[in-house]
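Appendix B. Raw example, untouched.
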Amino acid sequence: MKRKLLATFSVVYSAIAAQSAHAVAPSSLSQVPLFLVNSAEPQVMLNMSNDHQLFYKAYDDWSDVDGDGVIDITYKHSITYYGYFDSFVCYDYDGVTDRFEPAEETADKYCDSVSGAWSGNFLNWAAMTRIDTVRKILFGGARSTDTDSLTVLERAFLPSDAHSFAKYYAEETSGEIAKLTPWNVAEITICNTTYGTTGHSENSTQPPLMRIAEGNFALWAANERWQCHWHGHSEAESDIFDGPASNTNNGNHPPTTGLNADADNPDWDDDKLGDGDYVVRVEVCSSDASKTATEKCKVYPDGNKKPIGLLQEYGDDGQIAFGLMTGSFQLNKSGGTLRKNVGPITDEINVDTDGTFKSAPAAGNIIGNLSALRISGYCYNCTNRGTYNEGDNCAWGLNSFNNGSCTNWGNPQSEIYYESLRYFAGKQPLNTYQADDSSYLSNFITATSWSDPLSAANYCAPLNIIQFNASVSSYDHGDSEYPNIADLEDLTNINDWTNKISVPVDDVDGAGEGIDGNEYFIGGGTYATNGLCTAKTVEHLSAANGLCPEAPRLGGSYRIAGLAYYAHTTSIRDDIDDTDGNEAEIKVKTYGVTLSPAVPKIEVPDPSDTTQTLVTILPACRNQSIGGNCAIVDFKVAQEHTEKAGEPGVYTGKFYVNWEDSEQGGDYDQDMAGLLSYELDTGLNTIKVTTSVYAESTSYSMAFG
């Protein structure tokens, strides 16, 4: 999936870089000779969600990564995994510098016949988060060391809640793990976290860890409260489950679940491999060319190499001007906040010397802000240790919250996009959107002011918004959430523009996607709103809210589609004239880039054509005590789609689902674990779906289906 994401970004940026002046109608052709007209550099506003799902694992345990029709539930060597490590390099770990260092290239991604014990490909699968891949694509990765002679990248910070994650691998052939790691074992589990005992997540200086154990500890990050902790190492644990495996860390009962994972955390003395804990930092762009097989490195004028992303590729020489608009902590349910005005990237990078990053400009920046971004408000040693209760004003059992609380949750994508349109229209920030996040994350800064990116001198600059989304939209459906609509020429009503998207395919006045009048999985439709992913009629797209499967109750909308259609077909401002003195047409192209869904859909294949989905199942949970929904914090395939022995045409599958009892905050951990099973009978043309609960650690009444 990350390879597809990289390819998408590359295509988008290549298209933008190739843009020139806007096309004009014959009646308005300039009388100035074309060879005297300079086209202006394209402008790109990067729109980024500020949502906790950026910090999920990059490679989940339920997706078909390589598109071969088979779910990739564990490491698959034929896949080249994207991340900070070079997949075709083997690494050694230096316990003095606490980092992985490149040793030698490998043609087959194995390390048994070259120097270095760790496969870069395996480490990418085991340790990367979604934000790591974003940082690498955009600017080469987050640098913990950045000098003219050394660059070290560092994995994202992960609190000890369900943002931490475990990756389990059992070798298919003897000796496989020994080709990927320093150990000749049959099973290995890697748990990713940032261990801490004091302070809050936003100011922790603890290093990002991989904790490595021999055996099947696939549920090491599926515990009550504390994830990725060692047993017998003076680290907090919770053994409180009701169920067949009570007084265990995760409540697993293999005869019930079909998962052979241990119900307890691995023991520090008996189960750890090597040093047990390894810091996830890696030296990149070595001066030795034999150690940089596929790394994207650039030689800067001083002769040294630095890792680069698309910002350097298109910004070092001024091909494209970039800006950044993101969600915020202070106003996490409202609008977007400008982090950098559209302009050169050279104020952030020493492009004329060694390629190191400059101190983040206080007036606004992209690289510094995206490198600083992390989970805020998780408290390691408050009264309620290991929660967001005090640090983020986000206690367990909430069915709603206000701006400035539960600050890692909330993703008003349409409003972020709306504010970027207003920026290109030469307006000033909306008071209801403009946030100051300095008290939440000190180095996550807001641009000091808005500068109009257009004038009579560059009115023909191609304008582009790249909407980068880590999760589905939420909290952007209400009409009152889009103030000052009249600021944008001819916008008048966002609903009307949104409805142009969903009209019948033969409607000449709209985009014609044929949505109107049909049923879709949505939390709220035209006639029904129950906050669950059930089929509902959508008469017009503007009425649809609560996006599935992730957020059916959270008021996310499709307004961004209407706004993008408006900006693509209509001039967004009327205050700039072209070289002939006529009103210039200022339009915006929009590109959307999304990560793989953070919440799974179970797609039951059609036995007669396995490339087609016959039935889609969406796991659901309702906290009946508080009237809200739950959040999936872990999901695994317990049994893949299989034809039952002796029963031709009958197929079954089973899945492990781990639920947090609230949609946000609290201790964000396992509160209820259960199984979802199906039986498809093609002879009777029926499917039976069964859910069961085998472990719980909450006082709330939770309904799972």
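End of appendix B.
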